[in-house]
Every structure is written in C-alpha cells, then in structure tokens.
# Entry
Amino acid sequence: MVLLGLTYKANVADIRESPSIRIKEILESLNIQTETYDPYIKGKYNCLEDAVSGKQAIIIGTAHQEFVNGLPIILSNSKVKVVVDGRNCLNKEEIQKLNIIYKGIGK
# Structure
C-alpha cells in the first residue's frame, strides 16, 4: 500500500498537523506495510509512477495537483485494485471505469 501526500494541504511542503501522519501511524499500528510519496517531501520515491508501481492499494491523503492530474493516467497501467480518496479529488467514474474499487471520503 502507498499513502500519497504527507503535507497538511495541497501543493505545500508543511507537514505540521497533517492528518496523513496520523493515518500512517494507524496503518503501521495495524501491521499494514505502508510506503509514502509526497512530491514536496524528500523520500524513497522520486516520482508518482514509481510510488504506485506494483501496489494494489493507494490512499490519497493530500490533493496535490500531481495526484489529481497524473493518477488517472498512471492507474490505467497499474496493478492497483483499490483507491481510497481521502480528499475526494479524483473523478470517481473515471477510476471505476478502470475496474478499480473507489472509496471517496473527505472534503
């Protein structure tokens, strides 16, 4: 699983009071192996495509423009089976057309 977005709001590099940090802690406390990617925070992955590659599930914690614009294209060629959109930033119907389970929360 990959958690996309660690900052507290879209298109900024500030993680103070970010709900994504708490989400990551909860997933790890449940022994769910969780990797993260945020284009504004240095980490393991250099790009969104690398972060999503090989994953079966993703959670969107921050609605960065890179995710909104890039994910639909990347998902069409991925192994992702489930998208939990914590910001309701993706087009639900577009994701479901790819035979991916979509659950939107937030906003």
